[in-house]
Amino acid sequence: MSKLNIPMVDLKGQYQSLKKEIDNGIQDVLNATSFILGPNVQALEKEVADYCGVKHAIGVASGTDALHLALLAADIGPGDEVITSPFTFIATAEAIAYVGAKPVFVDINPDTFNIDPDLIEAAITDKTKAVMPVHMFGQSVDMDPIAAICKKHELKIIEDCAQSFGAEYGGKKSGAYGDLGCFSFFPSKNLGAFGDGGMVITNDDTMADNVRMYRNHGSKVRYYHSCIGYNSRLDEMQAVILRVKLKHIDEFNSNRYKNAQAYTNKLKDSGITAPFEDGKGTHVYHQYTIMHDKRDAIHQALTDRGIASAIYYPVPLHRQEVFAEDYKNISLPNAEAVSERVVSLPMFPELIQEQIQQIMDTVLSAI
Ligand SMILES: *Cc1c(COP(=O)(O)O)cnc(C)c1O
Fold first, then answer.
1. How far is the CA of 92 from the centre of ligand 1 (A)?
2. pLDDT tens across 330-347, in order?
3. With a 6 A CB cut-off, is 61 part of the ligand 1 pocket?
4. Positive or negative, the Cα torsion across 187, 191, 194, 195?
5. In terms of Cα–Cα distance, which of 63, 72, 86, 69 is closest to 160?
6. Cα–Cα distance measured from residue 143 to residue 123, given in angstroms and rounded to the nearest whole number
7. β-strand 288-291 against 102-105: which pairing, if any?
8. Cβ 344 vs Cβ 311: under 8 Å
9. What is the largest CA-CA distance in the chain?
């Protein structure tokens, strides 16, 4: 069989389809030479706030920084505990550690890959300050039960929406449900820049002011500094690119959804577990992640055929070297079991039927 060349995400294809608008935007930024916190960052903040239906959106340097600055803005610090998922990218827990707080990992629902709301209350102590749900692979976490628990125990909700831009739950956009929502614009995310970028959204005026202060050297008024802040600003060049892509995000996400359906149709009766939609919120398929005991064979067959695939995530966070010692006495069986069985397939709006067929033929031939 001939070797194919199918990537996880086709950034070249997407650039080609938007080239004129993006190139013009970049040229405008070069002509204006207003590179830091310029008019495009301001405009993008307004456009994302409108899209998400919130009062404030604050551009920052990355998704990791969005989480970090959101935790600072919510006044979470040393001695505090933040409940989150063990089945996520390391940045979720890193941000909690940056502020001196402790990540408390609560096991996931193995069908949705999201934190299991039923297990949260048992993990709350008098040090718990917040819950940080992660909308894994683009499917919204079931937020209502989490909100009820957080209300009862007076905890903040800080959403990690790095993978779920545009997803919805209860009529609200991802990130707009909690106290703060944190986006990543890493190039491969559903709304991706051409470099690093991130954003925090909130309806709270004080926390929005805090994020603005922390991203810009602890300063509310230029050259007057109220606290030790950071240099964490979204770049004007990234903002102009993101403004072009934001206009197309619903179409991108709906094409991802169609591609996911096409995959799932071909997996019927195959013995491979397709992604499960719980119907509580929507799914924007940042990743299309299947499960099977022969995951390594599937991964290998795809590699041999020239088709990209990836294991998100091979090791849950409580078993990562950096955390292993501190969490050696806990076991989170669902996260541990799922890590052994998952493999994510190419997923991007521009994927075509012929590629979906080739990918599925290869997947099915491996089991
Ligand atoms: C990508 C990602 C982040 C970090 O975003 P960066 O922009 O790469 O810093 C955080 N959390 C999750 C779940 C992610 O997927």
1. 7
2. 999 999 999 999 999 999
3. no
4. negative
5. 63
6. 17
7. unpaired
8. yes
9. 65
